Amino acid sequence: MNTSFGNIKAVAKRELIGYFSSPVAYVFLVIFLLLSGFFTFMVGGAPFFKFGQASLVTFFIWQPWMFLFLVPAVGMRLWSEERRLGTMELLLTMPITSWQAIVGKFLASWLFLALALFLTFPLVMTVNYLGSPDNGVIFCSYIGCLFMAGGYLAISCMTSAITRNQVVSFILSVVICLFLILAGFPPITEFLSRLTSKPWIVDGVAALSVITHFEGFQKGVLDSRDVIFFLSLIGFSLFTTGVILRGHRAG
Amino acid sequence: MIKVQNLSKSFGPKVAVNGVSFTVERGEVLGFLGPNGAGKSTTMRMVTGFIPPSAGTVRIGEFDIIEQPIPAKRLIGYLPENAPAYTDMTVYGFLNFTAELRGLRGDGKTKAIHRVVEMCFLESVLYQSVETLSKGYRHRTCFAQSIIHDPDVLVLDEPTDGLDPNQKHEVRGLIRRMGVRKAIVFSTHILEEVEAACTRAIIIDRGQIVANGTPAELKQRSEVAGAVTLRVGGVNASALGQKISQLSGARKTTVLKDEQSCVTARIYPQPNCRNGELARGIYETAAREGWKIEELHTEEGRLDEVFRSITMSDTAPEEGK
Question: What is the ipTM of this complex?
């Protein structure tokens, strides 16, 4: 177990070095923070100042949509770059298992996204300065964001294993993530409930949605079902990544 | 150390490798020869556990590469084709990463990195990004990676591809020196390389082994092996041919060049003719007849000719990726 942890750490470290030695990391962080600020303060029916409450709802409500484009941008290179450079051959002939490589790469990107989320702390300070928000709810929402980012990231990881072309990988994962958002989007659920009289179909589709599961966190509820949803989404996607990679090697 | 049995690989309907078997013991350097697309890289990828074989087994030391991949892979150092490396890392960062994956930590890791940096002459580019390296340096960086844990088994896919002649010479020397203590397989399509570095060579064509032997044995299969090339003055071509044909060891004489002052001819030996016997006979004839010998030597046979005659069967299909 000790060596497998060491291997995961080595892979993750390399991946993080890869992010920060190219402009990708810095461009991402700047754009993420700018967009977060923009959406929180400027966009929507009741942005931050007009909302009239000391809360970060106006920040978190946008996160599923921001992540939709930004997380695939982080994840698209994970495996497609390995395949394009041919380093996958190097990595997978090392004395490590492929799941160690997959998990190591995933954790590195997840850590990077966690850093991006952490850098929004001035928002928390601002809202605490202006009023007295429920910091438990804010903390819980951050946890939700992190899980949601992990779910999207695992999907990007999977699509980047499919192709050596980063653009294709990006578009595929945006489409899949968009589906996961829309499945629980009120206009869609209403449309579905008009189509069918059986509520279990509507609920079943909505249960697949990250929105449905993210809402719980936003209310400050840490429901084990929501946690399990995101963890199983991550688990399933990473497992599929492994299957795809093995498929490529088998020819 | 390496034991390959009936290894086969097909990509869909295309058979890339078909029933390849060979063994490599410690102290051996096996050259893997073949035209492009013959299945060299595919075989090496199966030996190193990158792609699973369709049939057959690979054993590294006492471990099966499919059943016990981790201990087997620990014994192998591998330089893949085209020497891939992470372009966003420095040479030091890259070597550090591979050393960590090989389980090296702390002092042992630092020592290992210094050792390979010295062996592969990477001091001057150690903190340079891999992306900015010339092809030769990048190649050596990847080569350094393959020997960082001083493996018992070394698999090198075209280790001298893209190097300049000096670097080629250096790498061949390195392979030969390391071959004393390790089992090494390397692929190439440069024939002089086989003579320079191998103790044994395998020629593979269309996924099958078509020849297996020491470089000297393979050269024996050449048509010109054992033939004597002669350049003499003071005689014309037809008189030369007549006198030579009286020798018991000579089978056939071909005139290569007929100039005014001298004649160049190649004399092929009878199959049962002992080594050197034909040359001695020709020398004695020349001395008796008063020919002026300018050149006289026995051909060793040429590997490229053997290679061509064995693998000349149109163009082989493209190698599967």
Answer: 0.86
